[in-house]
Every structure is written in structure tokens, then in C-alpha cells.
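Whiteboard transcription, Tuesday session. T.W. wrote the C-alpha cells on the left side:
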């Protein structure tokens, strides 16, 4: 009898492990791969004039680290570089800029709280768009839903649509995941859905985009979102599929030409009163034909991977 119980326990453990790994096949690329001047990472590298002194410190939202790294290794002198590029989060990047810890941040638009912080700082903060980013939505691969409208997304997150069958999908209650306020992708999400209710039992708040991806892969009736560059280059899951928005697929062609509806500016942000002249030199290069070729190359690489 004891052997039977042991066998049952082993079967249960193996089943649980199978379910866990079957639903959580996350593909994670270590950010160390994108470290500037790393021999393994030369994507988009352009040999150009080098900044060799007074290297500005840069803080970027995690999703934009590969892009920022390509910029840094193209324009910073390798011998002078001393880890001036940081990756944190959108909220930390804004705080670091306003605290004077960094010279430049690469982020999306500020949230209402961050905009208030900027106004209270009395800094002359400048926002210069240098690239585009797509906000993509995803669900479990076997969900029969392949496309949502922006109105559908609003109704789902406002608890006006609570079951996939209302959209001719599976008969299951929809679980939604979103980030805490002041995250970059959350601010973009809030431009789509305002005043949504996360107090409902099927609405959850988590701390980062990677956690949302894992949660949605685990909960087969759920939905989540992320920046396209984060999902394609840093963290994704083979159990998920990307959803069309307004019948438009988030593929390379639709995103590059701006046909995909959920596109946002990525900004080069700095304090105009900062006396480091290399800030304007770096910005001028990014906005130049050569710099924009690098940006477009990196955008295309995100879409291919």
C-alpha cells in the first residue's frame, strides 16, 4: 500500500511539473547580451565619429536597451566608455534625470505623475522623438480569438466584456493583467483604456512585463500586453500568440510603415540647461541620416526575431 501511495505522489508531482513547463516555455534573452562593445553583440554597429570625453550618462527603459546599446557603441569611444549606459525602468529613469544622476534618458511619454514631477522640478526638460514603438497584445495560442478592436480592449479592461464567448471565442472568463502606474507600457496602455477597474476578481496588477507574459501563458483565458521590442528581443513565451488590432497584424510591414494602430514615440529626454555639450552632439547624430538608419535597422531586427 505504501508503494502505491509513493507512486501516486510521484505521478502527481510529474503531472504538476509537466503542466508548469507546458505552460511556461519562456524565452529569456539576458540583457548582458546587449552590453555595449560586447563581442557577441554587434547588431547595427556603425563606425562613426567618437565621443571620447565627458561621456553623458544614459538611463533607458529596459525595452530600449538594445537600441541604446547600438547607439552607444556606434558613437562612444570604447576606450573611454565606463558603463555610462544603464537600464532600469521608465519610472526610475525619469527620477534619475530629475535627480541629476544621469544626463539623458530614452523612454516613452511621461505618466501624469511623472509630468507633475517634471513641472515641479523647474527643469527645462526636452523631449525629442527618435524612434517608434508598438504596444502589442497577446493571449494563449489556442484561444480562438485572433483579433480585437480598440473598443474590445476598452470593454475587456473596463469589465464590460468578461467572457471570451462574447467575442465569439472560448467560453471562459477573461483574466486581465496590467502593470502598476508609471511604467512606460502602462502609460501607453492608459492612453487606450482610461478609468479601468482592477478591483474585479479577474483583473490583476503585476510589477513588470515579463511577469505578465508568464501569467498569461499560465492562465489560458487571459490577456496581456508589452512593448514589441521587449517581447521580441528580451522576453517572450511560445505558448502565446500576438493579436491583431483592428484586423491589423503587428508584423514588420505594418509596424514599420505605421499601419499598426498602437504606435508610440520613443523619446530622447534631457535637461536643456545641462552644460554637457556632448548631449546635443549625440542627439544630432541620432537624428542624422546615419543615426536614423541605425534606428530603423534595430526596429527591423526587433520585428524579425
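and on the right, the sequence the group agreed on:
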Amino acid at each position: 500500500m505504501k508503494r502505491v501511495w509513493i507512486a501516486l505522489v510521484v505521478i502527481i508531482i510529474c503531472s504538476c511539473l509537466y503542466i508548469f513547463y507546458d505552460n511556461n516555455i519562456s524565452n529569456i534573452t539576458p540583457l548582458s547580451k546587449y552590453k555595449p562593445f560586447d563581442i557577441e553583440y554587434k547588431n547595427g554597429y556603425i563606425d562613426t565619429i567618437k565621443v571620447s570625453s565627458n561621456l553623458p550618462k544614459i538611463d533607458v527603459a529596459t525595452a530600449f536597451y538594445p537600441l541604446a546599446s547600438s547607439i552607444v557603441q556606434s558613437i562612444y569611444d570604447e576606450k573611454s566608455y565606463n558603463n555610462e549606459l544603464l537600464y532600469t525602468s521608465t519610472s526610475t529613469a525619469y527620477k534619475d534625470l530629475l535627480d541629476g544622476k544621469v544626463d539623458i534618458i530614452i523612454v516613452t511619454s511621461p505618466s501624469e505623475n511623472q509630468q507633475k514631477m517634471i513641472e515641479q522640478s523647474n527643469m527645462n526638460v526636452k523631449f525629442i522623438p527618435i524612434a517608434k514603438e508598438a504596444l502589442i497584445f497577446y493571449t494563449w495560442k489556442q484561444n480562438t480569438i485572433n483579433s480585437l478592436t480598440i473598443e474590445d480592449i476598452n470593454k475587456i479592461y473596463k469589465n464590460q466584456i468578461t467572457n471570451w464567448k462574447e467575442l465569439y471565442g472560448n467560453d471562459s472568463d477573461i483574466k486581465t493583467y496590467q502593470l502598476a502606474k508609471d511604467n512606460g507600457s502602462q502609460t501607453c496602455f492608459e492612453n487606450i483604456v482610461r478609468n479601468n477597474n482592477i478591483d474585479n476578481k479577474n483583473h490583476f496588477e503585476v510589477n513588470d512585463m515579463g511577469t505578465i507574459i508568464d501569467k498569461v501563458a499560465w492562465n489560458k483565458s487571459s490577456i496581456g500586453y508589452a512593448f514589441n521590442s521587449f517581447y521580441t528581443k528580451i522576453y517572450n513565451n511560445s505558448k502565446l500568440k500576438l493579436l491583431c488590432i483592428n484586423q491589423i497584424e503587428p508584423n514588420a510591414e505594418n509596424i514599420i510603415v505605421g499601419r499598426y494602430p498602437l504606435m508610440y514615440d520613443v523619446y530622447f529626454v534631457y535637461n536643456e540647461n545641462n552644460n554637457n555639450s556632448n548631449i546635443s552632439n549625440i542627439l544630432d547624430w541620432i537624428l542624422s541620416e546615419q543615426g536614423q538608419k541605425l534606428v530603423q535597422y534595430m526596429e527591423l531586427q526587433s520585428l524579425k526575431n
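Someone added at the bottom: The domain at 31-132+265-304 is CATH 3.40.190.10 (D-Maltodextrin-Binding Protein; domain 2).
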